[in-house]
Amino acid sequence: MPADIPVIVIAPDSFKGSLDAPAVCAAIAQGLARVWPDADLRACPMADGGEGTLDAVLSRGGTRMTRTVAGASGVPCSAACGVVASADGPIAVIEIAQVVGITEPEGMGVPVAERSTTGIGALIRQLLDEGIRRFMIGLGGSSTNDGGAGMLTALGLRLADAHGRVVAPTPAGLATLAAIEAADLDPRLADSSITIMSDVNNPLNGERGATAIFGPQKGVRADEVASLDATIARFAALAERAVGRSAAANAGAGAAGGLGFALQLVGGSFHSGAEVVAGLIGLDAALAGADWALTGEGRSDAQTLLRKAPFVVAERARAQRVPVTLLSGAVDARALPELDRVFAGCFALPAGPATLADCIAGAGALLADRAEQIARVWAAARR
Amino acid sequence: MPADIPVIVIAPDSFKGSLDAPAVCAAIAQGLARVWPDADLRACPMADGGEGTLDAVLSRGGTRMTRTVAGASGVPCSAACGVVASADGPIAVIEIAQVVGITEPEGMGVPVAERSTTGIGALIRQLLDEGIRRFMIGLGGSSTNDGGAGMLTALGLRLADAHGRVVAPTPAGLATLAAIEAADLDPRLADSSITIMSDVNNPLNGERGATAIFGPQKGVRADEVASLDATIARFAALAERAVGRSAAANAGAGAAGGLGFALQLVGGSFHSGAEVVAGLIGLDAALAGADWALTGEGRSDAQTLLRKAPFVVAERARAQRVPVTLLSGAVDARALPELDRVFAGCFALPAGPATLADCIAGAGALLADRAEQIARVWAAARR
């Protein structure tokens, strides 16, 4: 039995809609400190490659910076990204939602047919210019459905119509696409390592493809899906031939409106976002010698076990024999039998009947209280 | 550190409006058994002297019986009571709400001016006839406001008007009261021990008295309070003189519409209901050698620390160095700093946003889940 003052790792995902992961860590730490003022609390905010990934990674070190590139609509935007050191050189951490996000002010005002990912390509190019050769790119929250054509053209791919005229890398432009030339594709990509963080495993096209599944929420009308899907498929086939690699049928090619395809086409490989973040923030090192870990997320259910952040934390903790307790905004009671196999106790925010709005508005205080109460049980059991 | 298979005392009050205390015990035990199928679970349903006291006491032994006596309205009712063995002879356990309760079907249909506690006196008399000399009487939930006159007349007190005519032991009858004769008061009362279980400490009369404070919820109109209070005060003064003992100014005399007065007048003494129940169910013996205890109630707040059942459980557990965790329907967050001094963790039912109706309807399943999850933390901490 370790000493009375415990070593506790706090590794939650964000509580979407209320608190980002660093704020969740702070609230849990506040509650634990009421029980153990001198505890060794190791805050490791987690993320799944989507929104909040950058904040989570940078909370453990690295440099935040901004670069001005085109947003989805073409209007310049100031995109945050990060650089963290590693033994193999600096790693750039990019959230594509920072550039072409569904919350980008201009992006959603322009029809999806006119939106493009050129800003993502421009950002990668700037970072290549700055000497970066390792990229960890979080997909998720995109407003685009261009098959990644915008990104690829910004990196040197040339699109032309039947008359040899340049074609815009947008769904509208791709409708007239006839030829693709890859000779000027940035050669530095071949020397780069691109890690794609996403839990989406859809292919680029077809009934499970980007356009059919994610297009409607970006504004693709039902009667446009088939023709747009065919446009993207033709683009992909030409791009694959030009680059000499296939990717459209790969799992994840349909992520972020086809950025998953385009990034794989230039050598990127898919990884669980939570796994990558766990690596970047040094979760294993934090767990070494810990007595206990707390994780959580906005809502936990059977999906949690599909490699969501709390599951990844639990798996890495289990490897070091550290028990992990789940503290989420809500826990689906039906999933408890499965969650029980992974977590040493699953808890939710409310201290009594409460509305969702109450839980969101009071999340910080509720989290601190709940963490404290769980810690009191732990402390009593260790006496 | 004890063996891996823990000894756990489960000693909750009822969750009013959803589960009685034995059902709360069963639900918690179900949850704990999912973690420790072989645990030594000691169910000790608690009560505070009010509704549920009889069930709680009889769940640990003793005999349940029913006796037919007059309800508050005079209509005969079948009242449950219990007898438990003790070293000093059998103890009768009475809940006055079984006879003159606010849920008595007929009682509330008759004006409070016509309601009487004669059935309580008749029940005591029957039990005296059966040889009982120890009584533990839970006040609470009465529909009467007769100053206990009904009970006392059933035990031999005689009430008369100015013309020597018998006066009914109701608020209406007492209005013409002129004289009281105690010569025929049952002499066996003097040989009896009467423990009154109540947390009410109001005096019989005045602005903090039974009529002013509790009368309105029994149907006393605001414009009737002063005259009824004066009627009860005159009755009490005459009764005190006749019996040769004073009680009206005592704390608790105002409990149960003045039954607190009448029972003290015949030698009864007030005790915390939860303390008495803890004694009757052998809580201390159950706690001996236990590793952990769980208690709870429908809602916990600062009032809990005023000797409510969970507090009494915590105090007795503390004496034996057994940590106690609170698991209630809801926990007032503002009271946590105080509750934390007593309980090793305070938890509520919901696993996410939930309405009060959800919590009440699902109380059993939620309790089992919550107990299980808390136990998983305990088990992880003990590894």
What's the quick description here?
The structure is a homodimer of 383-residue chains. Chain A has 383 residues and is α/β, with parallel strands linked by helices.
Blueprint (SSEs and pairs):
The structure is a homodimer of 383-residue chains.
Chain A lengths: L6 E4 L10 H15 L4 E4 L9 H6 L4 E8 L5 E9 L6 E5 L1 H4 L17 H12 L4 E5 L10 H6 L3 E4 L9 H4 L2 E5 L11 E5 L12 H5 L10 H19 L15 H7 L3 E3 L1 H8 L2 H5 L4 E4 L3 E2 L8 H11 L4 E4 L2 E2 L4 H4 L6 E2 L8 H6 L1 H20 L1
Parallel strand pairs in A: 1-2, 1-11, 5-6, 6-9, 9-10, 11-13, 12-14, 13-15
Antiparallel strand pairs in A: 3-4, 4-5, 7-8
Helix pairs in contact in A: 1-15
Structure description:
The structure is a homodimer of 383-residue chains. By secondary structure, the first copy, chain A, is an alpha/beta fold. Chain A has 15 helices and 15 strands. In chain A, the strands form 4 sheets. Chain A has a 6-stranded mixed beta sheet with strand order 3-4-5-6-9-10, with helices on both faces. Chain A has a 5-stranded parallel beta sheet with strand order 2-1-11-13-15, sandwiched between helices. The first copy, chain A, has a two-stranded antiparallel ribbon with strand order 7-8. In chain A, helix 1 (21-35) packs across helix 15 (363-382). The radius of gyration of chain A is 22 Å and the shape is elongated. The A-B interface holds A 1, 34, 292, 299, 323, 325, 329-333, 336, 340, 343-356, 358-359, 365-366, 369, 372-374, 376-383 and B 1, 34, 292, 299, 323, 325, 329-333, 336, 340, 343-356, 358-359, 365-366, 369, 372-383.
